[in-house]
Each structure stands twice: as C-alpha cells, then as structure tokens.
C-alpha cells in the first residue's frame, strides 16, 4: 500500500483538511502519514510522525522511512522552527527518491519577473521591490495612492495602503479583522514610521487599484486550479470573496465573506459578465504552463483576481499552497473531490517515472 506523506510545521495545522484526506485514503488503496520536517533523523532517514488508522478513525504514533510521495503543506514564518525546517525541506526536494505533489513557487517578486515578459503581462499590477524609503516617496508623489505588501506574505498579512494628501499622509492596514488608520502630518513623521518597517521586512510596492464593489467593500475572485488523477490541469472551482466596508482585504482570515461565482456573475449585465468570463478563462488556461515552464512542477494553484471599477482585470496573487474555505462554502458538492484529488494525483505520480527536475529547490520554498 502506498504511504502518502503530508508534511506540516505543526501537527495540528490544517487539522480538518488533513483528517478528511486521511479518511478518503483507503478508497485509493493508500495510507496517510503526517510528520514534521524536523522529525526526520538524518542518520537513519527514519521519521517520527502519525499514521492514520482507518479502522479506529484516529492517528497513531509511528516511525517509518521518509515517504516517497510528499504533500508539502508547510507555511513558514520568521520563527526558529521555520528557519530549522527550511534547509531540511530543500534537501528533501533535491532527492531523486522522493517526489513532491508540487514543488512550490518563489516569492511574489520572482513570479512577477517571470510573468511580466509573458502573454499575461497586461494583467499584472506594476510591481517593484522596496529597497529604500525614497522609492515610496517618489511613487506617492506620482500616484498619490500606493500599496505595500510583503514579498513573502500570505492571507493579506502586512499589507499597507498609503495615500498622499496636500501635506499629510494617510496609512491604513488591517489587523485581527480591524481596520487600523493613521494620519502622519508631514513627510518626516511618515519616514520615522516607514524606516524600521522596511528594515524589518522585505516589501513590494504596487499602484493602488480600485477593487471595490458598489458598497465600497474590497472583493476578488478566488480560483483553485489542480492537476487531475491523470496529470492534466483543470479548474476545481471559483468563488467571490468580499471584505469589510472601507477595508483592504477580502481574505476569509481577515473576516471576509463569500458568495458563489455564478450568483455574482448573473447579477452583472450579460455583456459584462461574458467579457469577464472569457478573460478569466484565458488567464487561467495560460497560467499553469507559464509557471511550470520556469519553475518546478506544481499540483495546485490558488489564483486571486481583482476587477477594478473601470473594468480592468488584474492577477493579484498566485499561491501554490492555497486554502479551500471559499470552495467548501460556495460549492459543498465539491467536498469529496477537494479531499480526494491530492491522493489521486499522488497515486498517479507514484505510478509514473519521476519528472525531470530543475535546480529551484531553494527558491520554491516561500509559498
């Protein structure tokens, strides 16, 4: 029986999702073993973790060789355990006897650099690395409104909106589902706040896009793309995420709500709805081959797409370790597929020859 390894940084991470995968494993003639990268013994190449017992419907402590098929669900922070696990995962990804469902994507700037020379360039907000505060001041003077976002951010954490008024500066962010707003009376006060922020974290700068609905709520389209049991890309589903009035984020972790894509699309004028549908189909068909041409093979991609007030369509974020809340809430009929697909693709990989691998082990860890 094939052992399907699920790797996380915390044994309680994504508990409901991983439990459901484990419950479906028997139907695929597989068993699920979950473990931490830091639990691998480098001398024996054995790893301590938990095996799911389908009869008892529970997890049991176990120790076995590193699984040859691994589903990487590690989300790295700036803590010591994350720093310890990064080189271990890099080492695992370099091994020819281990196959990952997906090898991840690099940071947001590397993805932007790759796609800005592609057929999707016109859908990307102009993005630049923040090397110093002068870049921020220059863009604020030119555009009046900008967005700062962490180069490795996820779930909307650490995103800042900056607006230049006649003399003052307005800064807005969201933390713990609350909108936090500050006014700096002059440039000196703004710089005093900015300098330690960009020294502590790497940020990207983008123009501010009017991605709000008529109620001034930020909203976007979340799409989940996955490979099927025979290795072909397909779309699992899409939904609409809506945030708080006057806020920046539509992420569910920030308190956003969801509605079905079909309901939202039918609320639009038919011509506009058809235009958006065609544009989305083009973007989503183009994206996976463009990414896999430059980076290592992937299993799934979460794509966030914004639609501005003027009708322009923007690819806001691409995540190789997406969540599933949007689909579970808007398409409960997909529940079995959501939990079966990683197993089926893992089985497919175990039965096919290993793919040719490129040397992107270090750069594909951030997502």
From TrEMBL:
<protein>
    <recommendedName>
        <fullName>ATP-grasp domain-containing protein</fullName>
    </recommendedName>
</protein>
<dbReference type="InterPro" id="IPR026838">
    <property type="entry name" value="YheC/D"/>
</dbReference>
<dbReference type="GO" id="GO:0005524">
    <property type="term" value="F:ATP binding"/>
</dbReference>
<dbReference type="InterPro" id="IPR013815">
    <property type="entry name" value="ATP_grasp_subdomain_1"/>
</dbReference>
<dbReference type="Pfam" id="PF14398">
    <property type="entry name" value="ATPgrasp_YheCD"/>
</dbReference>
